Amino acid sequence: MNYFLSVTLSKFCRVVVAPLTRTRSYGNVPQPHAVLYYSQRTIKYSFLISEATGVSDTAHGYKDTPGIWRKDQVDAWKPIVSVVHDKGGIFFCQLWHTRRISTKGFDGVEIHGAHGYLIDQFVKDQVNNRTDQYGGSLENRCRFALKIVEGVVNEIGAHKVGIRLSPFANYMDSGDSNPSALGLYMVESLNKYGISYCHMVEPRMKTIGEKVECTESLVPMRKAFRGIFIVAGGYDRADGNKVVDEG
């Protein structure tokens, strides 16, 4: 699995099906129609990241988003995962805890550390007002996120772990005074865990659905991170082809 994932993601996967919150998992249980939804987005060697999935009954900030902490939820995910595998795809489950507002069958997990939710709330200096070991300095603010990464890596293996980050975003007023330094510190710290990939949101996406002109870039983070680097945010077909062509 380690070899298969690393070779497939690096050699074949240039475009990834990113997570999309669908709010159609009634009662926090994935529905049968999701089998068709994910099947339609799968071809051989494709890489899919599931919609954000709650880790507990207190993790949800939106109605009808899926969970994976109960047996009925796990059982509901199984046919969805199976159809992706049957079509030759790789499927990671994005785990989140929204805060402010054991995955069976999946190939791995993506830790949701972006968009003003629990992890992002720790790393951003505009919302983290703690005075303990998890607040103040950049190192302290990132400590919680890195402890989560370490815990998940120890549980399922680094090759099955990815993380999503949005250092430049200001979702729910969760901004940072030096997002470039934050992003660079995080990717350099992630290197020691050897995780499969880092999934970063483009600086131009400051808030939901708002694409702005921006001179900041993810290139320093891409160069610093030693794993696979995935970017999302504001792309159309022409933009995507351009950045792939330019490396």
UniProtKB/TrEMBL annotation:
Residues 14-100, 102-240 form the NADH:flavin oxidoreductase/NADH oxidase N-terminal domain. The keyword Cell division does not apply. Its cofactor is FMN. One of its GO terms (molecular function) is FMN binding. The keyword NADP applies. Keywords: Flavoprotein, FMN, NADP. It comes from the Eukaryota. Coiled coil: none annotated. Belongs to the NADH:flavin oxidoreductase/NADH oxidase family. This is NADH:flavin oxidoreductase/NADH oxidase N-terminal domain-containing protein. It comes from Solanum bulbocastanum. The lineage of its organism: Eukaryota, Viridiplantae, Streptophyta, Embryophyta, Tracheophyta.
